[in-house]
Write a structure and sequence with these properties.
This protein has 14 helices and two strands. The protein is mostly helical.
């Protein structure tokens, strides 16, 4: 409760601006909307066919956007749990709806007194669907995907890297656990590099997959997967590397302006490649690379997480590409 009060005080000016916008909507736009024949008919004398059709359309969009909205809710939850967080666009929308409904109930209830019981039932049914949709989780889906893979591999041997410890037939669990403990024992403020050496086909990717699963179970780590072999040329590798880091953070948190900041940093880092014929426009970049890097570090520091970057298939790259990857890490 104390954190919530601090959150309100810190963002009081933004909350006030949203309240003012809601006042503008309720006292000017809302009455105009009620004068439209379609809105008036929908609320006061709705046709059953119209309500069924709208309900079907709402369900269609709920199903279509299921995964994205679930991911958004998780990102919002992660961001809200941070110590130094501020209002984001999700908060703006929720607060605007809340203030608008409250103002309508207090000052514009004359427009809602004649609403038909059909529309009330329609509204309750759709709110029920939305509530069930919001309360659903991804846990069952993740478990189902894992079980599907395990069932598929139960009676067959193949040459693809394994993904789960239940698939391991070579007793690598002890090695994975020791490596996990070694990484977790490292100081938080420093960066380190581990190299996994082995001939082709000895299971390096399998070990990486098993190790990643160990860290995915912990809330203290953020995993970044990067395979430079999927990209051709130094510029493509450099761009993909920073894009992967940005995407991994953006998939977990909502930081306003974070993507744009990361893009500026990536472009500045790419400046050295301009000698190879690549042209980059820095006309809108007024900050130094050090200032941008400090801003990115502040974003990362807010998450209170260690970032682990897994880079696979380095041995498949060209010598100049391998050197670039070593410079990146």
């Amino acid at each position: 409760m104390q954190n919530f009060i601090k959150y309100i005080i810190k963002n009081i000016l933004k909350i006030t601006s949203i309240l003012l916008l809601s006042i503008f909507f309720v006292f000017l736009i809302f009455p105009v909307l009620f004068q439209l024949n379609f809105i008036d008919g929908l609320l006061n004398k709705p046709l059953t066919n119209h309500l069924i059709a709208i309900t079907a359309l709402i369900l269609f969009f709920l199903i279509l956007s299921w995964k994205r909205i679930q991911e958004l809710f998780q990102r919002y939850k992660n961001t809200y749990n941070l110590k130094e967080t501020s209002l984001i666009w999700v908060d703006y929308i929720v607060l605007f709806i809340f203030f608008s409904i409250l103002l309508i109930i207090l000052f514009q209830n004359k427009y809602t007194t004649n609403v038909s019981y059909k529309f009330c039932i329609f509204l309750l049914v759709n709110l029920f669907f939305v509530l069930i949709w919001i309360l659903s989780s991804y846990y069952w889906k993740d478990k189902r995907e894992k079980q599907t893979i395990l069932n598929k591999d139960k009676y067959s041997l193949f040459d693809e890297p394994i993904q789960f410890m239940e698939q391991d037939l070579l007793g690598r669990e002890k090695f994975i656990e020791d490596l996990e403990k070694e990484i977790k024992s490292l100081p938080f403020e420093n960066s380190f590099i581990f190299g996994l050496y082995g001939s082709w086909g000895e299971g390096k990717t399998s070990v990486i997959n098993l190790l990643k699963n160990k860290f995915k179970e912990s809330k203290d780590y953020l995993i970044v997967n990067f395979d430079p072999w999927n990209f051709k040329g130094e510029e493509a590798i450099l761009t993909a590397f920073y894009n992967k880091i940005e995407q991994s953070l953006s998939q977990k948190f909502i930081f306003p302006g974070f993507k744009k900041t990361f893009l500026k940093y990536r472009n500045l880092i790419s400046m050295g490649l301009s000698q190879t014929g690549i042209t980059i426009n820095f006309s809108d970049t007024k900050e130094s690379i050090e200032e941008i890097r400090q801003r990115i570090e502040s974003y990362i520091a807010q998450t209170k997480k260690k970032i682990i970057i897994f880079i696979d298939d380095i041995d498949r790259l060209q010598p100049n590409e391998i050197l670039l990857v070593f410079k990146l890490v």
